[in-house]
Specification:
There is one protein chain. This protein is an alpha/beta fold. The chain has four helices and ten strands, in the order ββαβαββαβαββββ. It has one domain: Dihydrofolate Reductase, subunit A. A hairpin with an 8-residue loop joins strand 9 and strand 10. It has an eight-stranded mixed sheet, sandwiched between helices. Bound molecules: NADP nicotinamide-adenine-dinucleotide phosphate. NADP nicotinamide-adenine-dinucleotide phosphate binds next to strand 1, strand 2, strand 3, helix 2 and helix 4.
């Protein structure tokens, strides 16, 4: 089973503020939906609460240290290992780690990721959650798409990176 991380980050690695996203780029949402539909998402409890519902067409795993935590329509896990075992037991081909900052950091520390889907957004502004720095030399670029700015949305580009084997 492959493990992928999917994130959108600003010029200074900004991810979020006050448990909210920093921009609304419909093309990026479409990319997220298309990439993850039919698969399983693993997200931290704070990210889940910011979204507030399970995303349709996907299985949602919520990571929390709270042994009593429950959310309808989701599975609650208490470690990365439990999430991975869950997906393996279901015969999943890929698990998407969907944030937030704490979860991305730990996934890098544990060297879990085979693939990175990173949307780089031309946004600089206030944030309280950041995407971690990581050793980019361990990954090779396998896809790059660029999206022009519009009246409503900034320029952004999608990079897909694969772990060098
Ligand atoms: N731009 C993007 O692509 C993107 C994507 C996702 C999220 N975000 C943004 O990121 C922000 C949220 O990120 P965040 O870093 O504050 O929180 P988070 O990573 O979403 O969640 C943190 C929570 O996860 C649980 N957790 C963390 N490590 C754990 C472990 N090893 N075992 C068990 N549980 C663990 C804990 O929950 P408990 O406290 O319940 O124990 C912790 O409080 C929001 O602003 C959101 O909008 C942005």
């Amino acid at each position: 089973m492959k493990i992928a991380m999917i994130a959108a980050l600003g010029n200074n690695r900004e991810l979020g503020l006050n448990n909210q996203m920093l921009w609304h780029i419909s093309e990026d949402f479409k990319h997220f939906k298309k990439t993850t539909t039919g698969h399983t998402l693993l997200m931290g409890r704070k990210t889940y609460e910011s979204i507030g519902r399970p995303l349709p067409g996907r299985t949602t795993l919520i990571l929390t240290r709270d042994s009593n935590y429950e959310q309808p329509g989701t599975y609650v896990v208490h470690s990365f290992e439990e999430a991975i075992e869950y997906c393996q037991s279901k015969g999943e081909e890929i698990l998407f780690i969907a944030g937030g900052g704490e979860i991305y950091s730990q996934a890098f520390e544990k060297n879990l990721c085979d693939l990175l889907y990173l949307s780089y957004v031309d946004f600089s502004g206030e944030a309280d959650t950041y995407f971690p720095t990581f050793d980019e030399s361990k990954f090779e670029l396998i896809d790059l798409k660029e999206f022009s700015a519009t009246e409503k949305t900034p320029f952004w580009k999608l990079k897909v990176l694969k772990l060098v084997s």
